[in-house]
Amino acid sequence: MTNSIIRVSIAACGLLLGTASFAQSSAPESAPPPAANDYSKAETWLCRPGRQDACAVDLTTTVIAADGKLTKEAFKANANAPIDCFYVYPTVSNDPTPNSDMNAGPEETNVVRAQFARFGSQCKLYAPLYRQITLKALRAAMASGGGFPADRKLGYNDVLDAWNYYLQNDNKGRGVVLIGHSQGSGMLTQLIKNEIDGKPVQSKVLSALLLGTNIAVPKDKDVGGSFQSMPLCRSASQLGCVISYVTFRSDAPPPANSRFGRVPTEGMQAACVNPAALKGGKAEMHAYLSSGFNGVSTESAQPKPWVAGAKIETPFVSVPGLLTGECVSNDTGSYLAITTNGNPADPRTDEIPGDVVAGGNVMKDWGLHLIDAHVAMGNLVDVVEQQSKAYLKK
After folding, report:
1. Where is the signal peptide (predicted)?
2. Residue 346, class by beta-carbon neighbours within 10 Å (0-12 exposed, 13-18 middle, 19+ buried)?
3. For residue 228, how many other CB atoms are within 10 A of its CB?
């Protein structure tokens, strides 16, 4: 993931959680309502099947073994995938306006590469553009405590229109996985509440992967809270379920001011489902991490070499055995705790970048929000593969 991608990926959950009053604001009453998008037009989509677009990218990965040995892992999309994936991206827009326009910039196309394109091995890929709340608006809202005139309903209505267009023109009875991160997860959460949960269309939904957001469930239960009919996923053959988590380093749990891992409702907790161990417990994470700069800004420290004495030339790396994850629920919150199992004696790095850094300081309340999707990408793809088989068998 490039410098610009990491920088822009940070923002969305602050929008949904840290600035709740801002999230409900809308455009000034005097402004005429913006026209709806026409999702029959090709340019309103970042990804659609059969095109050379933001999802048709190089995902070649260098696998770095504990002893430093390097092997290349090729990637091939499945043009005949039997199911679909529908993705809503996080806050990435660098547009100078409160809501983004409908012109895809490098920030939109690059986050698709990092968070979504790899699902092309299992799904036909659909990713609409939408007029999201921008980074500029989010920063202003966080600085002022809310009230910046951005229109949250505008982005949601775009996602709703894109979803309805997909159902009416593309779905044709196929199963679909919903995938989002941060602001994108917030949009999909609202879409599920309004349009899917407990309704006939839910039978088409294999799962919803809602990453980097706080989904409420009753303590020690898997359903209720945010959704009434869609439980948390506890097996790879379970359908119509939800995978949601936020990530923190195991030695840096959510602080008192954390944006993530908590919900405000009494008797509820934030959902945590580990894609590597759906039933619970600690498991190895099959991460696909950026081989390049992993900082939030130019103030962030450059990562150390992935392996001593070797140059990585692929866009992604995989580090088997280096990362393990376990869902933890305690007084600090409910979150996916990531442990780095480094060995100073071997040539592979012992440090995985992913913290948010501002003013030279690690923002511990963000956890590993920047790499929520990365640390479990291989596990998520594997779960979708198993759910696809279960759906087709059913």
Report:
1. 1-23
2. middle
3. 11
- pLDDT value of position 394: 84
Q: Determine contact, residues 16/182, Cβ cutoff 8 Å.
A: yes
Please list, in sequence order, all residues whose beta carbon lies within 8 angstroms of the beta carbon of residue 32, skipping any fewer than 6 positions away. none
Angle CA 110–4–62, to nearest 5: 60
Terminal alpha carbon distance of the chain = 38
36 and 161 Cβ atoms separated by less than 8 Å: yes
DSSP label of 36: P
8 Å CB contact between 126 and 84:
yes
User: For residue 303, what pLDDT is reported?
Assistant: 64
Helix (H) or strand (E) holding 159: helix 152-166
Q: Where are the beta strands (DSSP E) in the chain?
A: 45-47, 61-64, 70-73, 83-88, 123-128, 176-181, 205-211, 216-218, 241-245, 247-249, 268-270, 283-284, 289-290, 316-318, 323-330, 333-340, 357-358, 361-362
Q: Which residue has the tokens 């036909």?
A: 124
Single out the residue of 158, 150, 123, 104 nearest to residue 49, CA to CA: 123
Helix (H, G, I), strand (E, B) or coil at 126: strand
Taking 70 as the pLDDT cut, the residues of the chain under it are 1-31, 145-149, 293-303
Give the per-residue pLDDT at 292.
81
pLDDT value at residue 11:
38
Beta strands (DSSP E) in 107-186 are 123-128, 176-181
Q: Which of 87, 92, 272 is nearest to 187 (CA)?
A: 87
Q: Are 217 and 263 in contact (CB under 8 A)?
A: no
- For residue 175, the tally of other CB atoms under 10 A from its CB is 22
Q: Residue 185 CB: number of other CB atoms within 10 A?
A: 27
